[in-house]
Design a protein that fits this description.
- The structure is a homodimer of 474-residue chains.
- Chain A is of the alpha/beta class and 474 residues long.
- Chain A folds into 3 domains: 64 residues, Winged helix-like DNA-binding domain superfamily/Winged helix DNA-binding domain (Arc Repressor Mutant, subunit A, Orthogonal Bundle); 246 residues, Aspartate Aminotransferase, domain 2 (3-Layer(aba) Sandwich); 107 residues, Aspartate Aminotransferase, domain 1 (Alpha-Beta Complex), CATH 3.90.1150.
- Chain A has 16 helices and 15 strands.
- In chain A, strands 3, 4, 5, 6, 7, 8, 9, 10 and 11 form a 9-stranded mixed β-sheet that branches. A 4-stranded antiparallel β-sheet of chain A has the order 12-13-15-14. Chain A has a two-stranded antiparallel sheet with strand order 1-2.
- In chain A, strand 1 and strand 2 form a beta hairpin.
- In chain A, helix 1 packs across helix 3 and helix 5 crosses helix 13.
- Chain A is globular.
- Chains A and B meet through helix 4, helix 5, helix 6, helix 8 and helix 9 of A and helix 4, helix 5, helix 6, helix 8 and helix 9 of B.
């Protein structure tokens, strides 16, 4: 699967692993060109190219006549802690703060450590634009007409085919196309709840879910999300006994912000528990395709035998955020979902659906994913090393196996909302931990995005951010 | 403004008016080629071409050596009656029926008398496709990126400029771009109401508004809409005294289905009354640009001095239904509207916004509108004449000055839902009156769309429909 990478990139990856895993420590000498050439069966030129690339990233340094050395101490960050939220149904209360953060994370003048989207350079904008132009030329009338409310049939066919990768055997008729995954989540939530209902979520969770709950007058009940394995089925079982819960929203694959990935066993158990309690499970899978392994993880939906999982996803993190092409598999709630979608905006835009369908049909998506996964993994590793270098010792950090964000635990004395404002002043966009929960459990956490291409600007930004944190800690 | 029409089309229009107004009765002789040539200052060839066109439409017949005659009795249909709905807050109850109708009005196998959209041939699909291709070629990265939640700036600039035509002086910052007008209405309604609230609507009203109210748990209070002048301010005043009303939704310009157009005086008065009572007025203006006069009517919003009108509109009836490009002017409810839009789908698709902005910038829209208005007016008049011919005597019919639908009152014995099913069996799509109100006031009404290009198939369909009605009446 990884043959798509240039040979030198594979070497580069190998060396980064050596550094990141501390197999070769700070200041220590890295394997010689010749040794690595033999070991990896690559030419000396290739090995050299990889070392030069790592030197540009500031990870290694060349010493005349001595070879390449690990440049600095990438401190071995501890994992983040997992606070236990209170088991209390809580009405949303973060709306105003989230709106403030949202209005500045997208600010093009800020260093994009707050925005989750992959950098434009990593997305197939030209291929998509060419395909869209050709689709419009071939079907001008079709492209301006209403699409059916279900969505473009060829797109649903392609999605049904791709669903096999996530362990799901579904047909085109099971899908409902939406304007992005957020709309899918909104439609799902409106389809299964009424104002005042309790909704089970993981903590921390994506702040837009909190906004959505608040806007719909729903109460959040939070259970801990563990960076290493996400939601614990035992927590789900406990909460189901104590509260009347009408829906749940979980992100089992690379939860935003803690990057957690639930095991297949945990997924199966959670699906079973919720089905027994007749609680619809709204599954957010937008990062599922952004795994760093060659095989993407399964979904809750793939374990669903009774139609109670409503899967929601999109191409916003992998192809084109601005196309607003998402989808849902609403299971037994199909009719209710259809009704909400109808009164919300009748149907999703036609040309973008046609272009994405055409793109999937060409088979380019799989190849693109390989490159995108490798690029984001590399960016994330580089970020981790530099955070280790520039942030105070003891800063906790996640080690996600996919997605595109890092979740950092700072010293307890740090107020991340104050840090957010200070960083903004310094031209750096970050997401403060407080917005990822209705409770004050993450006030000293921040989320950093690894979507942007690595650059000197990012390095400087991380250094400056580390400086700000050190100052606040005094 | 009408110079855009071919000369023969102007002549054709003149003659159709003669027939429709009954200035020349059925079987009577129409002005000779020579007389009309002198009167209208057009060549004999032009006049002849117009008569041949009218002959094709089945409106006139040529008799050898005698000239052209009006072909049949276009019965002079009476206006429709205006039932008074009960003044009772009513929870939606038409959802299932509306869903059934909706699922078949879009059926491509049915004669499209139920679909409101203009026929594809009347829309600028090629020009738009070319512009979209060029926009994507020039800005591939921009076109796949998220748009701001407010919407594409150039689009909002063009909209602000065009708003002057409707009597509104607004700036780009006042707009929020939505995925079609339906989303604008949904966002507006969610921004100003909570479940259980009373909402004032006109009766009959567009059935999607009823679906929306039902879905949001809102109660409808209906006041009569008069085909000649829409909502009467006196009715508004009366209802405001009796009920606690939290929002109102009106379509002052060519209300769907009765085609009513409110006068400027009525608009001004309604805006004033609602503002005094602090009731937000959600204005649907999707048909405002489809007036048959050369100058489009003003909006409620143009009389709004305090920001309590939330104008909603789109290009779905004039350019490209499938692009899902709509907008709203939420006035003082801007922040609330923004919040609802954010949690619904973050922002509207980028490429379609860019293409519509580019189209408006070329100045083609105004020229296109002239042609579209003339085409729909002609189709409507032709429909009216044939309905007069084929439907039972006494069938009531509206005479709208814009929009694209006719509202027909059949004999009291007719159940229009039964007729809907029978017509569907016969391959004809219509909209039964029952879906345009929460009350049983329009069971013998139907709505027919004039969006499709006139054809022999439509003529046959109207004849068959007239036959079905005559049979049911027995």
């Amino acid at each position: 699967m990884r043959q798509e990478l240039f040979r030198y990139q594979q070497v580069e990856r190998h060396v980064r692993h050596l550094i990141e895993s501390a197999a070769v420590g700070p200041g220590e000498r890295l394997p010689s060109l010749r040794a690595l050439s033999r070991k990896l069966n690559a030419s000396i030129t290739t090995i050299n190219q990889a070392y030069l690339e790592l030197e540009k990233q500031g990870l290694v340094e060349a010493r005349p006549r001595s070879g390449f050395f690990v440049r600095k101490q990438p401190s071995c960050s501890p994992p983040v802690s997992v606070p236990r939220p209170e088991l209390e149904p809580t009405l949303g209360n973060r709306g105003r703060l989230i709106q403030t953060v949202l209005s500045s994370v997208g600010d093009p003048n800020l260093l994009p450590l707050g925005v989750v989207c992959p950098s434009e350079e990593l997305l197939p904008s030209k291929a998509l634009s060419r395909l869209m132009a050709s689709v419009l030329r071939d079907s001008p009338c079709r492209s301006i007409a209403y699409e059916t409310i279900y969505g473009h049939l060829e797109l649903r066919r392609q999605l049904a085919f791709r669903a096999l990768d996530a362990g799901m055997s579904v047909s085109p008729e099971d899908f409902l196309i939406t304007s992005g995954a957020m709309e899918a989540l909104y439609v799902a939530l409106r389809a299964v709840t009424r104002p005042g209902d309790n909704v089970l979520i993981q903590s921390p969770t994506y702040y837009c879910f909190l906004q959505l709950l608040e806007n719909c007058g729903l109460r959040a009940i939070e259970i801990p999300s563990r960076p290493d394995n996400g939601v614990d089925p035992a927590d789900v079982a406990k909460v189901l006994q104590r509260f009347d819960i009408r829906a749940s929203i979980f992100s089992p694959n690379f939860n935003n912000p803690d990057g957690s990935l639930a095991s297949d066993e945990a997924k199966q158990e959670v699906v079973k528990l919720l089905a027994e309690a007749e609680v619809p499970l709204i599954e957010d899978d937008v990062y599922g395709d952004l795994c760093f392994s060659s095989r993407r993880p399964r979904t809750y939906k793939s374990f669903d035998r009774v139609g109670m999982v409503l899967l929601c996803s999109s191409f916003s993190k992998t192809i084109a955020p601005g196309y607003r092409v998402g989808w849902m598999l609403p299971g037994r709630y199909f009719r209710q979902a259809l009704e909400v979608k109808t009164v919300t905006n009748v149907c999703t835009a036609t040309p973008t659906q046609m272009a994405v369908a055409a793109y999937l049909r060409t088979g380019q998506y799989e190849r693109h994913l390989q490159r995108l996964r490798a690029a984001i993994e590399k960016q994330m590793q580089t970020m981790q090393i530099h955070i280790g270098n520039y942030f105070p010792a003891g800063t906790g950090m996640t080690r996600p196996k996919g997605g595109s964000v890092l979740w950092l635990e700072l010293d307890e004395s740090i107020d991340s909302v104050a840090l957010f404002y200070q960083a903004r002043e310094a031209g750096i966009g970050i997401a403060p931990g407080a917005i990822f929960s209705t409770q004050d459990k993450y006030n000293n956490f921040i989320r950093l995005s690894c979507g942007a291409l690595w650059s000197e600007g990012l390095r400087n930004g991380l250094e400056a951010l580390g400086g700000l944190i050190k100052e606040m800690q005094r």
